[in-house]
Amino acid sequence: YTSEEAVGKSIGLIYPTENLNIIPGRVQNLSAGKAMHSFDMTLVRRSGERFPAVVSLHPFSREEGRCTKVVGVFQDISELMQAQTQLEAINMNLELRVEERTRELQETQKQYLHAEKLSALGKLSASIAHEFNNPLQGILSILKGLQKRAILEPEDRQLLKAAIGESERIRTLIRSLQEFNRPSAGKKSLVDIHDVLDSLLLLYKSDLKKKRITVECHYARRLPRIVAVSDQIKQVFLNLLNNAVDACQESGGLITLITAFSEDKVSVVFKDTGCGIEPENMESIFRPFFTTKAAVKGTGLGLSVCHGIIATHGGSMTVESRLGEGSVFTIQLPIKGDALPAMS
Question: Where is 254: in which H helix or E strand?
């Protein structure tokens, strides 16, 4: 207000309408000489806008035992309140970031400890695989020699053939185990996607059977090989398969592996009929250290790392999921260099 607009008017000019009834009581107290020090109050601007203020009222000029004048200081604290609100928001955000960082550090420690266990387990399994391979070669040589030279009854020959077949299967398992524990030093080479998936399923065969999980493979004919870091692609597929198994293991289920290709890309789909993903978690599943599992398990290779590996290969990873119905992870990888057709 201008001075001309305010001088001579009631103090109610800047009071909210609903607070006008408190004025007579305050006038009475001030007349009796009672000061009012620094109290909060909502006032009204000329435009009708309300604003927070700190008010102090001091009576003076006594006549006949009563105060006849009052000095009032009305301080607009809108900016101060806004700054306080911002500061509170910053403090809250800082606390949330500290909590989040603490959780991340705890998860990192768990991941590190689990990685150490996996490293030790990998070295042990590679050593055992090597020790098993030598006597197995001897057993295979003897069995094949008997198959060529021995005169056997038809039933015995059939049993000998079955023994050779099972020994060959053990040798394939050992070779797969050794390959998964042999790093490639980041070198890219031609990778047959179907060979990678088949070796994974071979390693998981007994575990899948025990958990009553069925696997269906719908492979594209003559899928082109891709230029990639072999062990990194294996780790991505291993993690996705492990997650699919975890999602299905409570009541069994179906895991479907689908491959396809276009002119310049190869697609690999991991589809399961497991528990699915909570809608509120969909935006966080590729975030580092995010997990819905009760404890660190499996390979310890999070989806964020898988997403990063696929991205460094120039590809993409997407997910679709419905709670209680399952999830579909789709990976697309470019065909780079000389893409030779696989024979699978």
Answer: strand 253-261
Q: How many CB atoms lie within 10 A of CB 77?
A: 14
* 123-127, 229-233, 293-297: least confidently modelled range: 293-297
Give the separation between CA 189 and CA 160, rounded to whole angstroms: 39
What lies within 8 Å, CB to CB, of 24 at 6+ separation is: none
For residue 225, what pLDDT band results from cuts at 50, 70 and 90? Answer: very high
SS3 104: helix
Residue from 264, 292, 293, 261 nearest 278 by CA: 292
CA geometry: angle 125, 129, 130, nearest 5 deg: 120
Q: How many CB atoms lie within 10 A of CB 182?
A: 12
Confidence at residue 343, expressed as pLDDT on a 0 to 100 scale: 42
Angle at 115 between CA 113 and CA 118, to 5 degrees: 115
DSSP letter for 48, please: S
Burial class (CB in 10 A: 0-12, 13-18, 19+), 48: exposed
Distances (CA, A) of 313 to 7, 94, 229: 77, 36, 8
pTM score of the predicted model: 0.50
Poorest-confidence range of 53-57, 87-91, 100-104, 124-128? 124-128
Q: How far apart are CA 292 and CA 275, in angstroms?
A: 12
The span from the CA of 188 to the CA of 305, in Å, is 18
